[in-house]
Write a structure and sequence with these properties.
Layout: H1 9-18, E1 23-24, E2 32-34, H2 35-38, E3 43-51, E4 56-64, H3 70-83, E5 88-92, E6 100-108, H4 115-138, H5 146-151
Antiparallel strand pairs: 1-2, 2-3, 3-4, 4-6, 5-6
Length: 166
Amino acid sequence: MPQISQPGHADIHRWLEAMQVEFYLCGACDGFHLTKMQERPGVFDSKLELIEEQGLLQFSTSMELRPATLFKLYSELGELNNRHNELKIFVELMDDTLPKLVISSHVRTAAGLTEEQFADFVGFHSDVKVQLLKWIHEQGYALPDDNDEENHAAPEIEMGHQHLLH
């Protein structure tokens, strides 16, 4: 039986490469930014972060929301969290940015994590998040991308002949 140890940044880096997952390191944080997840429509950021002092690996994905949809989305957060109990789903509100939906998951690493467990964690949670992101878009909660704006632009109303009464 192989020795299981708490993974470090080098392990995460090696495992992502072995899984052929595209990622980059931004320099502003210690996270591994997942390129394919970040290329999904509406995704603002998606990264894996090793929080060694807490013995956790966090996988978080955030997307910008349409402010006008916040009340309706807030009313559905309880059900979303219940339906996706492996995720933490919440809205992040800051004074100087658009509201963001944060979808987060964690796995304990303090007792150790194997490469297979890591691959299962990343693969499973990526799939679940993709499905949830699609649903968020379908419900109209996501802030439209530039491409989406063309498709979701307000319909043009053709005015018929109007008769003016004097």
